[in-house]
Amino acid sequence: MKKFNSEKDTKIMKTPNLDKVQEVSDQSHQIGEFLEWLENNDIVLAQFHRPTQLPADCLMPLNKKIEEILADYFEIDLVQMEKEKCMLLEKLRDVAK
């Protein structure tokens, strides 16, 4: 069985989104807690939309999960991040064989 060196073996792989998640972890956690607090206190985030039938913009609730809001804010691609996770898991499985 080949020994797995996590730093050496994973640094070869490019994981910019997972790296970014790790970099912003503390800040993301604090913002996430605040967003949860807003939800728990029935405070809704909203954004302006201009419906085709109405002459003026109207404020509509933002229908995004906290994870999506944080990903947008920190410029993290969630789809790409999931691919990076799968790639790392595959590498771990290969090394464990």
TrEMBL record:
Protein name from the UniProt record: Uncharacterized protein
